[in-house]
Design a protein that fits this description.
The complex is a heterotrimer of chains A (306), B (363) and C (347).
Chain A: H1 26-35, H2 38-55, H3 92-128, H4 130-145, H5 148-159, H6 169-178, H7 181-195, H8 198-206, H9 210-247, H10 258-267, H11 274-301
Chain B: E1 30-45, E2 51-67, E3 71-75, H1 82-90, E4 97-102, E5 105-106, H2 112-118, E6 122-125, H3 139-149, H4 156-169, H5 186-198, E7 204-208, H6 216-233, E8 236-241, H7 244-250, E9 253-258, E10 261-267, H8 268-273, H9 278-286, H10 328-332, E11 338-340, E12 343-347
Parallel strand pairs in B: 3-8, 3-9, 6-7, 7-8
Antiparallel strand pairs in B: 1-2, 1-4, 4-5, 9-10, 11-12
Helix pairs in contact in B: 3-4, 3-5, 5-6
Chain C: E1 25-36, E2 39-51, E3 56-60, H1 67-75, E4 83-92, E5 95-96, H2 102-108, E6 113-116, H3 120-123, H4 130-142, H5 146-159, H6 165-168, H7 178-190, E7 196-200, H8 208-225, E8 228-233, H9 236-242, E9 245-250, E10 253-259, H10 260-265, H11 270-278, E11 328-331, E12 334-336, H12 341-346
Parallel strand pairs in C: 3-8, 3-9, 6-7, 7-8
Antiparallel strand pairs in C: 1-2, 1-4, 4-5, 9-10, 10-12, 11-12
Helix pairs in contact in C: 4-5, 5-7, 7-8
The chains are: A mainly alpha (306), B alpha/beta (363), C alpha/beta (347).
Chain lengths: 306, 363, 347
């Protein structure tokens, strides 16, 4: 029994001192901590802005991104088109704004697919251990070992059966099927850590079934680090979609995506800089926003850092 | 100080009386009994194909009896197997061999659903109040969980009231039912754990070092609570601890463990005031007594060396490598836990003899 | 027997102005606070301690009373931020350690004043062998060569009775058992023959038989070197066995200070008395454990007046008001911070 080297948290000992406090879960404690971090607010602001842009592009631009007049090719910015026009004469800003929707939709659904896979595999491996864990861990290792982009290209090409495709599904599948591994590992280790906790032992002693233990005791404690991983992964997924589209194996015209815009614009970089700059900076800022959000959440939920 | 050998060949003396002592009325109902309980953990080598190269003999033949309404204290140092014993008694681990009999039923014969029912009768209070409660559940949920797992014990509409009642019984404010564990102190968290353990009205509670992690002044509160609950609900306790002073206070009978075996058992007066096994004597002499006038007055036995590995215990008597009385027979013949010529209670030593090490040496 | 430096080597000037006639250690009115986002915790609120060579001072108290923080402040290893020494002096042979530069403090730390901790596993560096860590002391503070330092390290391990020291010198901390690790830590602490050893709960995590071995070792080594020992603990049994004087701490203050026999037979503070009555004893049975009701105070919101008053069975109005109870002199060499110490002693 050693002295408390740091001051005890003010949340303890409330009852004995007669002060009546609202019950405070670890979650609300973390939220309070979160509110104090500027990184959180910046990240949140960016993310909300982008989400808004994706949901209601008309709030940001009235121009039709598909209305392209070749005559306006590479025109400089004006009061109407903030970033000018691209090589096809499309409004760069309008395309960038509408591209947000594609990127976010692909990113979110991709993350959803990856999460489901990661949860199932990670939890099974972590909870049951033994040969199941060995087997699943080796599978994770194998998938991890495959170069993401390479596999992505191959898979995307295969899934879209060559030819032109605006279908987002192949891209989403690629992201989901290849991107679940890190989250699975994180989930697996938090399940293993939670499994060995005394309170899980206590539940088992009470006669709780495995299902109950997983649902009530392990999942809530495994979720926090997962949320963090996934938020950051979202940024990565958006970038990957852009990369795939840039390489020509993701989305293609007439889909609107930042990747496509960047891909097209690089060809004419000497003529016009802005058609590259706009989608690229939108992409970078969006990803940065998600990463900052994920970072802040992770720091707030990590009890050791508080 | 030389010890004289007891007269008569060891092993021929006394009747077999595992777990009970001569002065204990044996007509009191036995609520829990173990017979030659063994738990070995295999040591394996290899990652893909594992082969067994040895075993950690954590519990190596333990036979004890717990009577209704009594507290049986089990003391021993780290590595003696008491924690493993606790886990076996509560059903968290399956024994490698031997039997655990609760209220006449052999646990090994129970099906899974029967096991679940059995859990209502035997519960455990755990050591660490900081990790034994799920930090993301409210106190009400934690204490109410037993009712959710065994829905037929308390009807749903009554559960809230019952949880509040339990909070009150353990000395906590029922209005705090929606608080989270981190809002309570260590002692209070332990009370929550106790409330959870008694929720299903068990008959037997295994207390695994329940006060070791608490401050001294809080220990008294929790110990008093446990005693009060025992009187009020007619509970029987197995109290496992390394703190001999605490066990002295609360236990009616005591069993001393060393390297997976019980080396001596008796009433608390017999064990503390008249220990006969050398290990018990060494253990007790090492316990500091808060009385400076006894400084230098007590019989100080300081053991040399470390505890042998439970994977490779010494042959014969396990304590012989550190025992000042060891003779040749100790290596060849393992002493049984029986009543001996010079002791009224069972002791696993060929040369058992009473030696009061706790009080000042009478000169 | 190892070749110990029994007299301080005069060629090693640790600090200027050291006065060998002044008290070995004199802590005066020490205040330490922790500044956190949630508020300021007053961990130490005016602690006075003295120590003489060859003496064992036990600092007794429960968690949160400030005993470890006091020790850290004396050693100069307080976590800053968030801990700050806001007031007071720590006089080592007349020199105030708090006013020294970090460089000067380093010459004292480990060299003249050493400390051992509760958990040897985290106090020892797991990636270096025990021999390396021991030898490091000699290399850094005494300027010995590698070979010389290694030789001394083996001697140190012998000193603390670690069997087969020559082979074990190359082992890593995790290869030792708990008791052995504690001995290694003692060996490291005593390597440079310090004048003061601070032991912060050295045996709390150990089995009782190992505890007995370690305490016996400490007592032997202390007697050999005439070293001052500050033993920080909550175990009243251990204290009764080894201490000469005891300072009982509660909520950052010393509430009672007395020679060991007096504390046990006639405590002069309600907290000490309550503590003695609440501990189970291995030589007594059936006594009712008196409970100290309530909980220790929140260090960020200590009530005015005597910090123990909310839990004290004898508290009066005077106790709940500022000013804090001063250190009344019960007898020469005995103090109690209770307005009603006379009543306590009388019972």
């Amino acid at each position: 029994m050693s002295d408390t080297a740091l001051a005890p948290s003010s949340t303890a000992l409330n009852g004995e001192n007669g002060k009546v406090d609202k019950p405070r879960s670890l979650f609300s404690d973390a939220m309070r901590d979160l509110r104090r971090r500027p990184v959180f607010w910046i990240g949140l602001a960016v993310v909300l802005l982008v989400v808004l842009m994706a949901a209601f592009p008309s709030l940001f631009t009235s121009a039709d991104p598909r209305h392209c007049v070749l005559a306006r090719q590479h025109e400089p910015p004006s009061g109407v088109a903030y970033f000018g026009y691209d090589f096809q004469g499309c409004d760069v800003f309008a395309r960038a704004v509408h591209g947000a929707r594609t990127s976010l939709v692909v990113g979110f659904i991709g993350v959803a697919v990856a999460t489901v896979l990661a949860l199932v595999i990670g939890m099974t491996a972590g909870y049951f251990g033994g040969w199941i864990d060995s087997l699943l861990s080796r599978i994770i290792d194998i998938v991890l070992g495959v170069p993401f982009l390479l596999a992505g290209v191959v898979l995307a090409t295969r899934l879209s059966q060559g030819g032109r495709s605006t279908n987002v599904v192949p891209v989403i599948l690629v992201l989901g099927l290849l991107g679940w591994t890190t989250a699975a590992r994180v989930i697996r280790s938090s399940v293993i850590a939670a499994k060995n906790q005394d309170y899980v032992t206590a539940a088992r002693m009470l006669g709780a079934s495995s299902a109950r233990i997983i649902w009530r005791h392990i999942l809530p404690n495994a979720l926090a680090p997962t949320v963090v991983v996934l938020t950051i992964a979202l940024g990565g997924f958006i970038t990957t979609e852009a990369t795939l589209s840039f390489l020509g194996v993701g989305l293609r015209d007439p889909a609107i995506s930042w990747g496509i815009d960047i891909s097209n614009a690089t060809r004419y970089i000497r003529l016009a800089f802005l058609p590259l700059f706009a989608p690229a900076s939108f992409l970078a800022i969006t990803v940065l926003g998600f990463i900052m959000l994920g970072d802040a959440i992770r720091d707030a939920f990590d009890p050791k850092l508080r | 100080m030389t010890e004289t050998v007891g007269r008569g060949a060891p092993g021929t003396v006394g009747r077999e009386a595992p777990g009970t002592s001569a002065s204990q009325p044996s007509d009191a109902e036995v609520v829990l009994e173990t017979r030659d309980l063994v738990k070995h953990y295999p040591i394996t080598r290899g990652v893909v194909f594992q082969r067994k190269i040895g075993a950690v003999r954590a519990v190596d033949g333990v036979s004890l009896k717990l009577h209704k309404g009594e507290t049986l204290g089990i003391v021993g140092e780290s590595g003696c197997g008491k924690s493993t014993l606790a886990r076996l008694l509560v059903g968290l681990e399956k024994p490698s061999s031997g039997q655990i009999i609760v209220n006449g039923t052999d646990l090994g014969t129970l099906s899974r659903s029967e096991m679940r029912r059995f859990r209502r009768d035997v519960q455990m209070v755990m050591q660490d109040p900081y990790t034994s409660l799920n930090p993301r559940m409210t106190v009400g949920d934690i204490i109410g969980e037993p009712f959710e797992i065994h829905p037929d014990v308390v009807p749903r509409k009554d559960r809230h009231a019952r949880v509040r009642e339990l909070l009150d019984v353990v000395g906590l404010n029922p209005d705090h039912i929606n608080r989270y564990p981190h809002q309570f102190s260590g002692g209070q968290r332990q009370r929550i754990g106790i409330a959870r353990a008694i929720a299903l009205r068990p008959k037997i509670i295994i207390c695994d070092e329940p006060v070791s992690a608490l401050d001294v002044s809080i220990q008294a509160q929790v110990i008093n609570l446990l005693e009060r609950l025992q009187a009020e609900f007619g509970l029987s306790y197995i109290f496992i601890a390394h703190d001999l002073s605490v066990v002295r206070h609360i236990a009616d009978r005591v069993a001393v463990m060393y390297l997976g075996k019980i080396v001596e058992t008796g009433t608390d007066a017999e064990i503390y005031d008249g220990p006969t096994h050398p290990y018990t004597q060494a253990l007790l002499s090492a316990v500091p007594v808060p009385d400076p006038t006894l400084r230098g007055q007590r019989d100080q036995i300081v053991l040399e060396g470390d505890v042998p590995s439970p994977a490779n215990p010494p042959s014969g008597c396990r304590f012989r490598t550190r025992c000042w009385k060891a003779k040749a027979i100790c290596a060849t013949e393992e002493p049984a836990l029986v009543v001996r010529e010079k002791s009224a209670h069972p002791s696993a030593c060929h040369f058992a003899e009473v030696r009061d090490v706790v009080h000042a040496a009478t000169t | 027997m190892a070749d110990i430096i029994t007299t301080k080597d005069p060629s090693i000037e640790v600090l200027p102005n050291l006065d060998s006639t002044a008290q070995l250690l004199d802590v005066r009115d020490l205040h330490v606070e922790f500044r956190t986002q949630a508020g300021v915790a007053h961990a130490v609120r005016g602690v006075n301690l003295t120590l003489n060579p060859g003496e064992t001072l036990a600092v007794l108290g429960e968690s949160g009373c400030g005993k470890s923080v006091t020790a850290q402040a004396i050693m100069g290893i307080l976590d800053t931020p968030p801990g700050y020494v806001t007031k007071g002096e720590v006089l080592y042979r007349g020199v105030d350690l708090l006013k020294l530069s970090e460089r000067e403090r380093r010459r004292v730390r480990g060299n003249r004043i050493a400390m051992i901790f509760q958990d040897a596993l985290s106090a020892l560096n797991p990636v270096f062998s025990v021999g390396f860590q021991l030898a490091e002391q000699f290399r850094v503070h005494r300027g010995l060569s590698r070979a010389e330092a290694r030789k001394r390290a083996i001697e140190q391990l012998d000193l603390v009775k670690i069997p087969a020291a020559r082979q074990r010198i190359n082992d890593y901390p995790h290869q030792f058992s708990g008791g052995m690790r504690q001995r290694v830590m003692i060996a490291m602490a005593l390597a440079l023959d310090p004048e003061i050893l601070i032991a912060d709960e050295p045996t709390t995590a150990l089995d009782v038989t190992v505890q007995a071995q370690i305490m016996r070792l400490l007592a032997e080594l202390q007697a050999e070197r005439n070293m001052g020992l500050i033993l920080i603990t909550h175990d009243m049994g251990v204290v009764a066995d080894v201490a000469d004087r005891i300072s009982v701490m509660y909520a950052g203050r010393v509430v009672e200070e007395a020679p060991v026999h007096d504390i046990y037979s006639r405590p002069a503070h309600p907290y000490t008395k309550a503590l003695l009555e609440s501990i189970p004893r291995v030589d007594l049975k059936g006594q009712e454990l008196k409970v100290i009701k309530g909980l220790p105070p929140n260090l960020m919101a200590i009530p005015p007046g005597c910090a123990f008053s909310p839990r004290c069975p004898m508290a009066q109005d005077e106790c709940r008001r500022d000013p804090l109870p001063p250190n009344y002199e019960v007898e020469p060499g005995r103090h109690s911070a209770c307005h009603f110490w006379r009543d306590v002693v009388r019972d």
